[in-house]
Amino acid sequence: MAWGRSIYGVALSSMVLIGCATIQNAPVNLPGTPPDLANKLALGFEEGAVEDDTVIGLSFSGGGTRAAAFSFGVLSELERIPVRGAQRPMLDRVEFISGVSGGSVTAAYYGLKKKAGLAEFRQQFLLRNAEEGLQTDLNLATFSRALAGGINDSTGFPRWLDANLFHGATFGQFRAEGRPRVWINASDIYNRTPFVFGATTFGAICSDLSQYPLADAVAASAAVPVAFAPVVIQTYPGKCDTPLPPWLLRVRDSKNAPPLLAAFAKAISRYHDGSMPYIKLLDGGLVDNYGLSGFTIARLSSDTPYGPLSPKQAVKLRRALFLVVDAKTGASGNWINTVEGPSGVDLVKAAADTAIDASVAGSFTAFNSTMAAWQASLIKWRCGLSAAERVKYGARPGWNCHDLKFFVSRLGFDQLDSARAAQLENVPTRFNLPSEQVDAVIEAGRDALRASPTLQAFASSL
C-alpha cells in the first residue's frame, strides 16, 4: 500500500484539523448493458477458453511497484520454461489472471498487450515514477484534503496510467483481446466486499462495462485510503431490464451460503434495487490482498459440478496450476523493544497491516479448500458420465475420468534465503522505486518460480 508510514501519519494528523477542501470524484461509468459483450465480460470462463488440457491461473497481490515487479518476474520466467513434450512455453497455458492493487497494473497490462507487453513493461512502468503529479508531501493543504476524503482525487493516477500504459483502452477492447482472462479487483468499502470489474457487477447496476476505462479500474484497485479519495461508481436502477442471476438470488436468501459468496450476493442486490446510488471503491487489498475472490466466487456461484467450465472443457482438462504471487512486506517496527507503543503512526500502520495479513491468510485457506472440493466434484461428475455423454463432450479413446489434478501454491519472498527475503521485504510500498530495487524484485520473482516444488511437481505430471 503506497506511501506507508507517511500516509498513516496524514490520517492521524488530519483528524485534529477542520478540513475545508472538497474532493470531487465524479463517476465515469455510463448506463447501458450491451448484450453482445455479456459472454466476454462475465465472471468465469467463456466458451472457447481452456483450449488445452492444461491450465495455469495466477493471482497478483498488492504492494505497489514492488508487487508489479514481482509478478512481472513470474510472468517473464513462465515465458522461459517450456511445457514438457511441447514447443510452447508455460506462459501460453495461462488462462486467467486476477490482480489487486499494484499487482493489477501488471495483470491489466499483460492482459491488454500479451507477450509484446513483457518486452516493454519494465521501461514503461516499473522504472517510471507513477507518483509524479500526485501530492505526497505532508502539509496543511494535504491535511485538509485528507479530512475531506483523500489527498488525491480519482483523476490524477488514472490520467497517468492512461497516458503511459493503457492509452484509452476500455474493458470492451481489453476483453476482446482474448485469453488470458483478467479480473481487476477493488474493495467496496460500504459492503466490505470485493468489487470485481465484470458483467455480474455492471449488469446489476445497468452500466456499460465495455466503455469503462481500464486505467480507472486499475486506479480503483490501487486507491490507498487517505492517500486517495474513493473511486465512485454510479448505479442506474431501472435503466435496464437485466435480472439478477438465479444463483445470486439463491445465495442472497440462503442462511447457509459461504460468507464470502453471501456478502458478495447481498452487495450486488443492493446495487440492483436502487438502495445504493453510488458505490465507493478503495484499494482491493483491504478485503483481499491476494485477489483470489474472483476465482472463489466464480466457482462457488456455479450450479454445476464443473462450473465455471463448460462440460467440454471439464472433460478435456487434466492438469491445473494456481499460483498466488505474494509480494507482501515482512514485520517491521521497533516498538516491540519497549513497554510503550505502538502509538500514533505505528499503531495505525500495525492495525492496518494486521487486518490485511489476516484477510490474506483466510482467503488463501478458503481458496485452497474450494479448489480441492472442485477437483473432487469434477472427478465424481466425469466418472458418472454415460458412454454417450463422453462422446458428446469430446472424451478421446482411453480417456481416464480420474486423470485430473489441481496444484495450488503461493510464491513469496519468504521462500528465498533469509537474508535475501529480509532485503526484499524492506522494499517500500510505493509507485516509485530505484532501478536496483526493481531489478532485485524482478529476479526474485523468477527465482521463486523456478525453485517452487509445486511448479516442479506440476511440470513433471505433464
How is this structure best described in words?
By secondary structure, the chain is an alpha/beta fold. The chain contains 20 helices and 8 strands. The chain has helices at residues 4-14, 38-41, 64-80, 102-113, 115-126, 140-148, 156-166, 171-176, 199-204, 214-221, 246-252, 259-273, 285-288, 293-300, 311-316, 344-383, 387-392, 418-425, 435-450, 453-460; strands at 54-60, 94-100, 181-188, 193-196, 231-234, 278-282, 319-326, 405-412. Strands 1, 2, 3, 4, 5, 6, 7 and 8 form an 8-stranded mixed beta sheet that branches. Helix 1 crosses helix 6 (140-148), helix 1 crosses helix 16 (344-383) and helix 3 crosses helix 4.
Layout of secondary structure:
Layout: H1 4-14, H2 38-41, E1 54-60, H3 64-80, E2 94-100, H4 102-113, H5 115-126, H6 140-148, H7 156-166, H8 171-176, E3 181-188, E4 193-196, H9 199-204, H10 214-221, E5 231-234, H11 246-252, H12 259-273, E6 278-282, H13 285-288, H14 293-300, H15 311-316, E7 319-326, H16 344-383, H17 387-392, E8 405-412, H18 418-425, H19 435-450, H20 453-460
Parallel strand pairs: 1-2, 1-7, 2-3, 7-8
Antiparallel strand pairs: 3-4, 3-6, 5-6
